[in-house]
Every structure is written in C-alpha cells, then in structure tokens.
C-alpha cells in the first residue's frame, strides 16, 4: 500500500440523540500497537450496538455502562491490512480480511475452552473500543480471518455479528436438526434474517413474525413456510394452529418482552434461544410453563471463534449469502441509521467506506 495519510474520515458520536448527532468528520488516523493491525476499512454494517451507541438503550440493560464520548462505533469490519504492529505474523500488509469482533484475554478457563464470549474480560470491538465506522481501524490481529478474493467486502461485513449470533443460537446452543421447526420473532432484523437463512440451510421448517406485509412477503420469499403479524393476536395460538397443536422445536427471540408467547409456542422439550432484549428486558411468564413441559431457555448473545469461522466459511463456499437491505456510503451514516431504525428495513444495512 502507498504511504498512509495522517488523518481519516470517521462517523463520530459526541452525544446521545437521533441520527442528526452523527458527525462525519476528519480526525487523526490511529496507529497499531503490539499484536494489533491497522485495517483500511472497506465495509461495515449497522447492528443494534450502533443504534444504542448513538441513542443510548431505551431502558438500562445489563451489563450496559455509559460510554465515554466521542464514540466511533461499528463492530463488523471487512477491509485490507494497512499496517502491522510489533509481533504480528498471521497476516500481511495488503491482505483482504474480515474481523471476529469479540475481544478476550485468551488465558482464562473460558478462553482456554474455546468460549471467547464467556471470557472474564470480554469486550466487543466497536462498543468498548473505536470501531469500523471510519476509514481506518485498529484491531487485534489474531481476530482476523483471510477473506477470499471472490467474496465482496459488502457481503463479508454483513456477517460477523448477526450471522455468528444466529449460528450460535440455532446450531451450537439450540442444536437444531434437519426436520425440526423454528419460529423466528422479528424476522426482518439482522439476527432474524440471519436465523432464517441458517435455519433453512439446516433443513428446518421456519415460521416467522413481522409487523409489515412487505416484511412477511420477503420472509416467505426467503423460505419461511408461513408468517404472522404479531398485532393480529397471540403468536402462540397461531403457531399451535400452524403445527397441529404441537408447537415448534426452537424459538429465536431477540426481543425479550415476548418470552411468554415464545414459551407457549414451544413443543414439549423445545428450546427458547435468546440473544437480546430490544423490546423489553423484564418479561412476565409462568415458570411452570417451562419446567412442566421440559422446555429450556438458552442464552446465546454471540458466538465463539469456531462459530464465526464456520459461518464465514459457508459464505466463502457460496452456501450462505447474507440478506442485505441496503448499502450506504459512510458520509450518509445518518441516513443509514434512519433506514436501520425504520420498520421497513429487512436484513442488514451495510456501510461502504
């Protein structure tokens, strides 16, 4: 690569607020330290972390802490290695890469067992560090996965957070098997649309909820057997009607406030897998509806390195492609946030840099 500029453009958050507080500005370019690499970011994508970095969460959510402004968010990152810090040997300058965004110690019992997201010092790139909503970003070099030339930066950047989380929920934690049935709540979101892709590839029958007719149409176009408007009545009654009174084997619930209906939608021995609380973090339900029917509730907020590499290799092999709603340049970051927050978006909103 040519000589690097001393400054870069970035989307900077100086205070909480609406999309209008996002500032596209020129700031000093960072330098990588020991074990780090400087990435020339080519694409990133918007996750709930980015929206809450800007707005703050709607209610206090464990383990949320107030950030130190200014913030550069962006946990998904695909680009090229621009510079190496001391001691880095696993990648080289100019190499195309995609980032696993979990930051971990590597030495605790959980890390040694391969469960990086359970690390006692667990952090997330783009939430606890400056992220990829910038022309350059400093990352842990050991978290980089080589990106084949035939895979676009746009597709790669849509995958790490949403698809690794969905893989963890369904495959690693939920142990989904071919022939089982899955209910996905909020199928139009990043995790929801990723779960739809992964569940269909695994051979599952998928039922899904979405508030708008266009989202329900798109979910069925991408393989959902049937869809439901959650404002039309109890979700569980619809699921039981669809399944002949049996219920589904797995419910993917990133919403939180919907647990009562999620639990009632499960078959005996079914699994509720959860990764978020975007609609509320204190659901009300009867625990007897869990243990009396041998149901399980499984937390799966993000996958480990193995989950990440498995889902990325499916992308590399052409077996899974991300559902992308729209693509914006970084200078239109405010418009991208508006699209991601709109009820109309379906799939990932990607940012090119």
Automatic annotation (TrEMBL):
Pfam families, per the entry: ADH_N, ADH_zinc_N
Domain of life: Bacteria
GO MF term (any one): oxidoreductase activity
Protein name: Alcohol dehydrogenase GroES domain protein
Keywords: NADP
InterPro entries, per database record: ADH-like_C, ADH-like_N, ER, GroES-like_sf, NAD(P)-bd_dom_sf, Zinc-ADH_QOR/CCCR
Location of the Enoyl reductase (ER) domain: 17-351
């Amino acid at each position: 690569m040519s000589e690097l500029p001393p400054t870069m453009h970035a989307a900077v958050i100086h205070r909480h607020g609406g999309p209008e507080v996002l500032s596209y500005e020129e700031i000093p370019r960072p330098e990588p330290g020991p074990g780090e690499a400087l990435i020339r970011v080519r694409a990133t994508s918007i996750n709930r972390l980015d929206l809450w970095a800007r707005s703050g969460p709607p209610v206090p959510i464990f383990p949320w802490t107030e950030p130190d402004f200014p913030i550069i968010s962006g946990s998904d990152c695909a680009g090229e290695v621009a510079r190496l810090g001391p001691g880095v040997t696993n990648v080289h300058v100019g190499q195309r890469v995609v980032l696993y965004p979990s930051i971990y110690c590597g030495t605790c019992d959980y890390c040694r067992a391969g469960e990086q997201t359970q690390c006692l010092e667990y952090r997330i790139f783009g939430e606890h560090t400056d992220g990829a909503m910038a022309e350059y970003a400093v990352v842990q070099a050991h978290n980089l996965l080589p990106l084949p030339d035939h895979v676009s930066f746009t597709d790669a950047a849509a995958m790490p957070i949403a698809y690794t989380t969905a893989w963890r929920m369904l495959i690693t934690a939920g142990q989904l098997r071919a022939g089982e049935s899955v209910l996905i709540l909020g199928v139009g979101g990043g995790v929801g649309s990723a779960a739809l892709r992964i569940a269909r590839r695994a051979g599952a029958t998928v039922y899904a909820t979405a508030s708008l007719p266009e989202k329900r149409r798109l979910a069925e176009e991408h393989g959902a057997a049937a869809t439901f408007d959650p404002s039309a009545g109890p979700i569980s009654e619809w699921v039981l009607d669809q399944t002949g009174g049996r219920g589904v084997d797995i419910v993917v619930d990133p919403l939180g406030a919907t647990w009562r209906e999620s639990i009632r939608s499960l078959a005996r021995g079914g699994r509720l897998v959860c990764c978020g609380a975007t609609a509320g973090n204190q659901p009300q339900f009867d625990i007897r509806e869990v243990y009396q029917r041998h149901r399980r509730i499984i937390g799966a907020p993000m996958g480990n390195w193995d989950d990440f590499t498995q889902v990325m290799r499916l992308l590399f092999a052409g077996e899974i492609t991300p559902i992308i709603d729209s693509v914006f340049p970084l200078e239109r970051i405010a418009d991208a946030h508006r699209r991601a927050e709109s009820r109309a978006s379906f799939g990932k909103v990607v940012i090119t840099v």
